[in-house]
Prior knowledge:
By secondary structure, the chain is of the alpha/beta class.
Amino acid sequence: MTDSIVNERTAVVTGGAQGLGAAIASHLARDRFAVALLDMQEDALQRAKKSIESRFRDARVFAAAADLSRPEDVERVFQEIDSEFGRIDVLVNTAGGSGTVAVREIEDLPPDVWNTVIGNNLTSAFLCAKYAVPIMRRKGFGRVVNFSSAVANGLAGPSGTVGALLPYAASKAAVNGFTKQLAKDLGGSGITVNAISPGLILPAQGRVRATFDALPAEARAATEAAIPVGRTGTTDEIAAAVGYLVSEDAGFTSGAVLSVDGAAS
């Protein structure tokens, strides 16, 4: 690696194949970060990689398919990132979701759905931080941004775009606790840990967008009316919030859960 590559800021974005993760990765590439995209979807990963490279001529983009709830997969990809870039400055744990199985009643919730949703949201954040933090320690600088949700406080009424509601709420509440404790554990290390708690964000494509668009018109209108600012959020608004939390200006912000939800929480 050349000196210029070694000194280049590097951001790892999980769930980077599409939707919110891809938008965040693009925002960071625009800000001249080298980006490493992690996701389970190999074809979508390669499309996201090519899209960023086509938009930003000098962008350096690494993409690797992995199941981020599996320790062996996470250890492997972080070794590959370290070999490729020689550093990690930022970790954005966007990967997760509520799954595609709509379940509202606890007696109807299969244990495998519970385990999958917990693994995708909470275990993945833990494992990625476990392997990223030691690399950050080498430079004495790092920014970890986890993703919570307004649903961490519970959700009454129609679930809208949320699939398995109970494990999703449980996992996102746990992400908040994980964020606050890790921030305290890393105090004084130069590494900050924060979370973003989005409301309903509609990317241009992806499962959430498709689920929202499939709702009856009255259900879509009711969902938007329940948001105090009167609309859903955009991926650009979330990416901008990430941009602040990963900046050097945010060095005194750690252990925070930033709500970006149109005053819904």
